[in-house]
């Protein structure tokens, strides 16, 4: 068995990044100005020229280095950093803001319900006025 490592398959990396971004081949093809078959061919290629790779990276919203260095193991490690119960990283990322609710959601729901009731009452009154107006027209004829 050879101790040589398998060469990096750039097409598979592109495919996996596209899938993680919940993007279909057709959408990537449209962003690249090509067709789905061409994207399929790219994803089956072991190597891609740098100009094309730059276009693909831009269409995917990532850097060329992100594509070249992509691995499933790195993704798992990256997402595992978010499973900590330590929220200091999150607070640091948003400027230390406290994101607790400053209002009671039930109160907001009740306010919305009361507003809807008032709107229905106005609609009902408008309909009553319309009926009265039409009845007056009929009586006057």
TrEMBL record:
<dbReference type="GO" id="GO:0003677">
    <property type="term" value="F:DNA binding"/>
</dbReference>
<keyword id="KW-0175">Coiled coil</keyword>
<dbReference type="Pfam" id="PF01381">
    <property type="entry name" value="HTH_3"/>
</dbReference>
<dbReference type="InterPro" id="IPR001387">
    <property type="entry name" value="Cro/C1-type_HTH"/>
</dbReference>
<dbReference type="InterPro" id="IPR010982">
    <property type="entry name" value="Lambda_DNA-bd_dom_sf"/>
</dbReference>
<feature type="coiled-coil region">
    <location>
        <begin position="106"/>
        <end position="137"/>
    </location>
</feature>
<feature type="domain" description="HTH cro/C1-type">
    <location>
        <begin position="14"/>
        <end position="67"/>
    </location>
</feature>
<protein>
    <submittedName>
        <fullName>XRE family transcriptional regulator</fullName>
    </submittedName>
</protein>
């Amino acid at each position: 068995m050879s101790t040589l490592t398998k060469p990096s398959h750039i097409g598979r990396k592109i495919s996996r990044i596209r899938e993680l971004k919940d993007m279909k081949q057709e959408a990537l093809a449209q962003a690249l100005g090509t067709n789905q078959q061409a994207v399929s061919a790219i994803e089956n290629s072991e190597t891609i020229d740098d100009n094309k790779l730059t276009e693909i990276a831009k269409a995917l919203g990532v850097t060329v280095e992100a594509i070249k260095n992509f691995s499933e193991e790195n993704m798992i490690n990256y997402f595992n950093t978010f499973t900590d119960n330590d929220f200091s990283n999150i607070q640091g990322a948003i400027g230390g803001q406290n994101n607790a609710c400053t209002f009671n959601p039930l109160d907001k729901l009740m306010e919305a319900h009361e507003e809807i009731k008032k709107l229905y009452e106005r609609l009902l009154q408008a309909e009553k006025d319309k009926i009265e107006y039409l009845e007056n027209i009929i009586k006057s004829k």
